[in-house]
Amino acid sequence: MHGIITIFKKELADHFSSYRFLLLFALIAMVSLVTVYMAGLNIGRELEGVAKPKFVFLMLFTSAGAGFSLVQFVAFFGPLIGLILGFDTINREKNEGTLSKLLSQPIYRDAVVNGKFLAGLALIAMMMVSIVLLISGMGLIMMGVIPGIEEVWRIFVYLLISIIYIAFWLELSILFSIIFRNVATSALAALAAWIFFSFFVSLGANAMANALTPDASASDPDATIRRAQIGRAISLISPMELYTDATATVIDPMRRTTRSFIQVGFMEQLSMARFSGPLSLGQSILVVLPYIISLIAVTGVCFAISYTVFMRQEIRSL
Fold first, then answer.
1. How far is 194 from 215, CA to CA, in rounded Å?
2. What does the DSSP assignment read for 8-57?
3. Are 272 and 264 in contact (CB under 8 A)?
4. pLDDT tens readout for residues 188-214
5. Per-residue pLDDT tens for 220-242?
6. Handedness of CA 219, 236, 68, 150 (dihedral sign)
7. Is residue 241 helix, strand or coil?
8. Which one, 70, 81, 90, 279, has least CB within 10 Å?
């Protein structure tokens, strides 16, 4: 445990003293504040002269500002935080010859990978908490609305899911840093993984769903529903899709499901009309619990692979 704490403190000191972290945090904070500022202006304009809805404060996170909402911004660009923080975590020390010197000290090898991941996780948590607090403060100033206790808890759950989501990308970049000795190669591999899960999974899901259901048409609703189900099932292999569905449901109490395409019969229509109020926080968490567990699981699997590969590697200085 002493070795993990030592590596943890060393990595935090390296991050806080690097221009990379300062520039990254400044960029993320600036874009987030601009997005929320534009969203606040739009919300104030739309609600001028009308009664404010119950969960108006949460609209800061879901309303589109400069073309996208804060939830969409974190879903798309959040992975870059983890990738930038971790793509050279191990191989940089290998190339500089400091890893072998570090392991010659009374520090266990597993303390290195554990300490580096925990330091990156703590840094991600600090960045996300700071950004959410800045956004909340701006929302209080612009909208003059104090969030209720349920809104605060929903923002807290959203924050936890965001940290887990970015932690997956951090661990994935650490894995590439362990596998590839060249820093540029690990950076390209991490960027390729982000592009694949961000763009090609959704395109591939639609293409595969169309190929598996060629008879789907407007006159055949069953085939159309089957096509949508196949496409959604394939798209859920992307952590970005899991995160987007989970946070959109948690941060929006009026959203009752993660699915965008629902077959509704007469009794379902009657039930939805009768019980059309917002979901409680507990109910929203139950809806998205499989997605949260899936994000934790893929992060754990990625960490286990990184741990195993690093423990079996031969460490030599050049």
1. 33
2. HHHHHHHHHT-HHHHHHHHHHHHHHHHHHHHHHHHHHHHTTTSPPPTTTT
3. yes
4. 999 999 999 888 888 888 788 777 777
5. 667 777 777 777 788 888 899 89
6. positive
7. helix
8. 279
